[in-house]
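User: I want to check something. If I give you two sequences, will you return the structure for each one separately, not as a complex?

Assistant: Yes, each is folded on its own. Here is the first sequence with its structure:
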Amino acid sequence: MKNNLEIKCSFCGINNDNIFLSGLSANICKKCIIQCYSILDAENTTKNHYYYNFKPLDIKDHLDKWVVGQDSAKKIISVAIYNHYKRILYNEKNTNVKIDKSNVIIIGPTGTGKTLIAKTIAKFLQIPFCICDATTLTEAGYVGDDVESILSRLLYVSKYDVKNAEKGIIYIDEIDKIARKCQNTSITRDVSGEGVQQALLKILEGTIVNVPPKGGRKHPNQETISLNTNNILFICGGSFEGIDKIISNRISKNHIGYGIDNKSNNIYNYNNLVKNIIPDDLRSFGLIPELIGRLPFIAVLNSLSKELLENILINSNNSIIKQYQSILEYDDINISFDREVLKYIINKSLDYNLGVRGLKSICDNIFIDIIFKYSSSNTKKNNIHIDMTYIKEHITSV
């Protein structure tokens, strides 16, 4: 057994008079404990405030790498994100000014990048992020998910770190599908529409919610986790099909030029109408005023033009063509295209009117036979060129 005089701090070598903790093979003094704590505290502070170091321009620059076009919407969202996390910082400093939450609603046709924008921001800020579907939610007491279930998903992706979850982002998709079914009061409860909107109000504004860890319905005697939603950023997205007609009727009852059959004109007209959206248009669509008030930032995504679809297909960081080329490279397959094939994919996507999803669907049909045939081959190297002859032979809807 060692003499007490031999006991020294294993970190700084100070003698036993200052030893605070002693183990079987190591010791640590008070001074080193304090120093370790300050290091850990500094690391946690840096980690927790990582997203405070960015300006709106930084956020938009990152979005530009992954989301093609939509400059106006990206500026609005970048400012909203910046305001939200600065608000958290100022509140942590206990300033006297109370800054309201800056939740966001994104409006745009399917396949224009609503979900991609939310995902890209969360990844950039390195914070917990989850997506939920508003169509699965119902008012408490009815078949479906309680609104609290969206918080359960955020807890899950946060690995049940409550403090981390309380500064995350929740993207609520298909928010337009819970619009009021009609403007007139009905004796039939709108449990998956207005009822859900009412249930979302407190969560979006900021409150302490008892959340079932595994989601689903709450029941008596169930263990729950308390989660404060005050600093959780909510981004709601929806296509709001028909919102352009509501805007048109508000601006003028006799709009000239809208409704022309030409695809390019339809896109141009939609984009010019929706940029004039005001909160009252959302109320006319079926969102209740209280919910609209909790979504102060309205970002509108334009329908994708032929030029934007071409950039998404070919030139963007995560272009669909690059994705397929990467998949095929794993099997030592090189793929190339005629320019006419790329034009065909873009024009077909315009016909489908599904944005990026249309591009993906057409490319899936083109590549099914190629991947099935050549990925199963024992040939070491395959160089494949796709022209319109191949398209006519393999795609029945040309």
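And separately, the second sequence with its own structure:
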Amino acid sequence: MTDPIADYLTRLRNGIMANHRIVEVPASNIKRDITRILYDKGYILNYKFEDKGPQGSIKIALKYHPETKNPAIKNLERASKPGLRKYAGKDKLPRVLNGLGIAILSTSQGVMTDKEARQKNIGGEVLCYVY
């Protein structure tokens, strides 16, 4: 697999389009950090890390509106790819939907959202956009 983060986002996207309640993805440290951010920002209902097998897995409970059944995540978009990395300095951090969505960055101080990076005054690699 050449791009595990794109695979992670695609599995979430496919689970949402198929109206699945739970999606299981192979685990890695960066995927765990992205999952924690999605949970903290209210885009997913819950998550569970399982350490079975050599790699382990992450079970993610997707979040839907109780009445309309619309998913909490409207769009997941990969920004930086293995063939074309996208970096943003502290002055040029992206704003997703004028602040309504989040951009997830990999910085020298760990994986965080664009808002947290602005507060800490650091830049990094823009991994994906979520709204």
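Because they were folded independently, the notes below concern the second chain alone. Helices lie at 4-17, 29-40, 114-120. The mean pLDDT is 96.
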